[in-house]
Design brief:
The complex is a heterodimer of chains A (430) and B (506).
Chain A: E1 2-5, H1 15-24, H2 26-39, E2 49-54, E3 72-76, E4 87-88, E5 111-116, H3 118-126, E6 145-153, H4 163-176, H5 182-195, H6 201-223, E7 234-241, E8 247-254, H7 261-281, E9 285-292, E10 296-299, H8 301-306, H9 315-329, E11 336-343, H10 352-366, E12 369-375, H11 386-396, E13 402-406, H12 409-420, H13 424-429
Parallel strand pairs in A: 8-9, 8-11, 11-12, 12-13
Antiparallel strand pairs in A: 2-5, 6-7, 9-10
Helix pairs in contact in A: 2-12, 5-6, 7-12, 9-10, 10-11
Chain B: H1 13-29, E1 38-43, H2 45-53, H3 64-78, E2 88-90, E3 95-100, H4 105-125, H5 127-132, H6 138-156, H7 158-170, H8 187-199, H9 225-232, H10 239-246, H11 252-273, H12 275-295, H13 301-314, H14 330-346, H15 350-355, H16 365-375, H17 378-385, H18 388-394, E4 397-401, E5 407-411, H19 418-428, H20 431-434, E6 437-443, E7 451-457, H21 465-479, E8 483-489, E9 495-501
Parallel strand pairs in B: 1-3, 7-8
Antiparallel strand pairs in B: 2-3, 4-5, 6-7, 8-9
Helix pairs in contact in B: 1-4, 1-12, 2-3, 4-12, 6-7, 6-8, 6-11, 7-11, 7-21, 10-11, 12-13, 12-14, 14-16, 17-19
Classes of the chains: A alpha/beta (430), B alpha/beta (506).
Amino acid sequence: MNIVDRRLNPKGKSLSNRRRFIRRAKQELTEAVRKATGERSVSDTGSDNQIWVKADRLKEPSIRHSGEMGERDHVLPGNKHYEEGDRLKRPEQQGGGGGSEGAEDGGGEDAFQFALSQDEFLDIFFDDLELPDMLRKQMKSSDSFTPVRAGHAVSGSISNLNLKRTMRNSLARRIALHRPRPADIDEKEAELLALGDALDEETVARRGELTARLEVLQRRSKRIPFIDPVDVRYNRFELVPQPVTSAVMFCLMDVSGSMTEHMKDLAKRFYKLLYLFLQRRYKNVQIVFIRHTHQAKEVDEETFFMSTETGGTVVSTAFEEMMRVVKARFPRDQWNIYAAQASDGDNASNDNARAAALLKRFVLPACQYFAYLEVKDEGGRDVTTDLWRTYDQLIKGGAEIAMRKVSERAQIYPVFRALFAKDAKAGAKA
Amino acid sequence: MSAAKKLEPDWDFDGLRRAYDAISDIALKELKLDLYPNQIEVITFEQMLDAYSSIGMPLMYKHWSFGKNFARDEILYRHGLRNLAYEIVINSNPCIAYLMEENSMMMQTLVIAHAAFGHNHFFKNNNLFKQWTDADGILDYLEFAKTYISRCEDRYGEEAVERVIDAAHALMAQGVNRYPRRKAMNLRDEEKRARDRLEEQERNYNELWRTVPTKGVRARPAYNEIERKKLLGLPEENVLYFLEKNAPLLKTWEREILRIVRQVAQYFYPQKQTKMMNEGCATFVHYYIMIRLHETGFLDEGAMLEFFQSHTGATYQPDFDHPGYSGLNPYAVGFNMMTDIQRICTNPTDEDREWLPDIAGKGDWVNVLKDGWADHRDESFIRQFLSPAMIRKMKFFDLHDDSESDLVVKAIHNERGYQTVRSKLANQYDVVQNEPEIEVVDVDLDGDRRLMVQHRVFNGIMVKEKETAMVLQHLANLWGYEVMLTEISAQTGLVLKRHVTQPAPQ
């Protein structure tokens, strides 16, 4: 008998089968994920992304007996009071008194449930989405360098020591300089020992000869080091500047008093999704959060999503703040600039013209893409708001703004997809 | 055996060894089991799920359906809807049994007795296993299969390989030889043969298509039906075998994949036919051993309490009208029958003497059971050994269903019904009767190369139409030309239905 502890064997042996399975079910999973996200928020699905999939492509068919015809017998356990010859009404759903056969892998397999990991879930959800018009712009900051292997060097950090090269050099040098091998010395020593202390002439002569020889060998071996500094080689790395597509997304959110809780919730959900999307798909995307009432302020992520504040509405302040940040930190020749604005569409009436002018003269020319999301109360009347009208006029004047309205949670996901689907700009303007 | 040291509740390797030795003592001396050498492997529940999803084998080729199994089992397990099985044990030499690290020491003892002794003995001695499976070669063969298929994926693409495996899996139930005719399988030779064949690249000579006329020459031998069928070895119940040998358009690697799937199907076929006996044997063995371990003082009362909870749970048979009823529990039927046989041997009633004269009062129940385990499959075991006492105990009754009128109780657990119940229950366990009988009957060599397949319909039970159509699509894709499945009544010979499928364009 043999006991083997296999617990430390590599885990996830079935991962490649899972990958094959997900590839197989790609289309159905995508639909299921879209549907699921309509019912709940992506960010708090966290641990438990259970998905129902129903797919012919996932069925493993086999030739089996039909359960609905022909004659058969069922032997069942647990008879209570039946006597021979009793007649029983047929159970309603299905022929046959019991599932004495076929229950195993058959029946309920048409649709089946399983859990996706958060990563798999988001991958599928964000599949086919992208930031439009991303341009390659050279970025100068230091973190865009990647080390690339570039031959060997005679100096370097010990962690980059190239042992193989070093030993090769050492060996070559030792051979060239006739450094005695340890085995040679051992041999001579052994021979010397074997001679013993006999005092006859021949032995004494031999002993003297050996001692002299040993001395030479040992001296030589000391003088010629095993590894000499000239042998040592290091792996050399060169820092190669990486052309990076760097982008910044400005999230402009109206938090004024006219925004109801519901509207704020919609807006926050939208930004949360945007945030997840950018984090997941783009390494070099910076996100700037700006919220505004009658005054605008750049805030951190936490404040943006969590804190509550109210006030009047002056949209132009948000644009001013955005341009200030752009000037200070995101030169246009180095950054792809995107902006997404969410608002209920209210604005101080004397600000509309100023907001439109700012947008047209500064914001839009700076942006690759500008998306506007108007949030509404559930079941609210579809009135055309000040902001919507203002933007609409800009669009008619040739400006590129993607606009969408949202009034309930379930619309967030389709709208998000519409705004960021590949070649979205064409669709968004429609 | 000394009762010196009681077992701790938590297991350790030393405890496992001592438990194994104590069990071994009883199993060899009292039950006289004949075993493959054992290899016991401790694994985590995740590894158990892994093994689960690839039909219990430690090595398997890659396929999405195993990923699907895993996804489904995982969620059931994590939600506590399903416990992982008692154990997994592999019919190989050495016999590999998995223990989960989460188990208590009592459970480990139980699983060792159950799997490493009960199942192990059954695998080694049952005739079906001896005849159809090769315990020495299976792991090496699966290793070969896995490597071969992954090399095919590298060379021909995952999707192309997947198409062939999907099709072969759909026909898996039609990929076994039900009746012995060739020599016992030897998977080591099998593997060597596959290697040799690989070296002979694509030399693809095919007996069948020698009959395809060359242009302008009309002097083709006009095969009559009998010659043609003889040439093709028809009728052939093993559809995968037939395709491997005769499908005109398959490439060598595709044939090899069909062969692999067929070998795996054949390897598992005895398990399908002996599930009740196999579990019954293992349960009977663990029960006997655990009781004896208690008597010798190796297991204390606390451990026994835990054992009984687990044992009764496994051998619980809900009544037919219980919401939890999902068919006969093989553990329950098997264990009860074997306990009953033990009783009949040692303490028979007059009734037993009448019904089972060969074994009643024979005394030597160990050998009676061992002979039973060796010589039978579920169906014949029930026909041979199901006693009236068992029928009364389980309160079996036979319900006749003609799919139209009311259900009729044909027999119950009384004098008039024993015979019928026994015979119908045996039928119910007969795999051959419960699977559609499909055969390749002919190929239209003169015309459009249509493959003709037949389903012999018994008692008016035809095949599920929609699912069958999917399988036939796979079959047609492999064959490369039209396929027709004819359902004919076994009683009257009349054609009941025809299913015709064209291969999908590649």
